[in-house]
Amino acid sequence: MQTPIGAMDLPVHPASAAGPDLKQVVLGSEGRLGVLTQATLRVRRLAEFEAFHGVFFHNWEEGTNTLREITQAGVGVSMLSMSNAMETTTILARSGQDDLVKWAGRGLGAIGFNEERALLVFGVTGTRRQATQARLAALEILRGRGGQITGTAIGNIWKKSRFYSP
User: Fold this and answer.
1) CB proximity list for 40: less than 8 A, separation 6 or greater
2) Who contacts 101 (Cβ-Cβ below 8 Å, separation ≥6)?
3) Per DSSP, what are the bridge partners of residue 79?
4) Could you report the per-residue pLDDT of 83-131, keeping only the tens digit for each?
């Protein structure tokens, strides 16, 4: 990176626990701290299998406590995305799946999920076996914490629009 005071080399390897990761600071600076002039990329093959699943919680706290448990248990999910009530409403409204949203709203309301509901989308990636193991381990925790599992329909909506959502 070229900075106002000269070149700065950022290490290719992940940062240690010795302080902030300068790469993250630089990448978020949008050119204010310097201009990237060279980059090293790591390319990997696409995973054999990938799937995203939706789970509703009664509220944000219930969901985030469950995320903490999944993470601390070392479950091999590839992605966890938790949305608060407002973001959940926005995601559903922007999905383009009006019938699905109405059906889900009625169904969730009938079983006690009100406007405070929060949405978790989690992903499993890898070989089919790895993804299945991760999904089953996550689902065990999610069910135990009262999550309403919806399958992959909402996960697929999330995947399709993930880069277009606010």
Assistant:
1) 12
2) 92, 93, 95
3) 123
4) 888 887 777 777 777 777 677 777 777 888 888 889 999 999 999 999 9
Domain boundaries, the chain: 1-43, 49-161
- Helix 128-144 with 60-72: angle, nearest 10 deg: 130
Task: State both tokens at 104.
Answer: 């889900």
40-85 pLDDT, tens per residue?
888 989 999 999 999 999 999 999 999 999 999 999 999 999 988 8
Statement: the pTM of the whole predicted model exceeds 0.90: no
Whether 148 and 120 have beta carbons less than 8 Å apart is answered as: no
Pick the CATH number of 49-161 from 3.90.550.10, 3.40.630.30, 3.30.70.3450, 3.40.50.10860: 3.30.70.3450
Q: For residue 56, how many other CB atoms are within 10 A of its CB?
A: 22
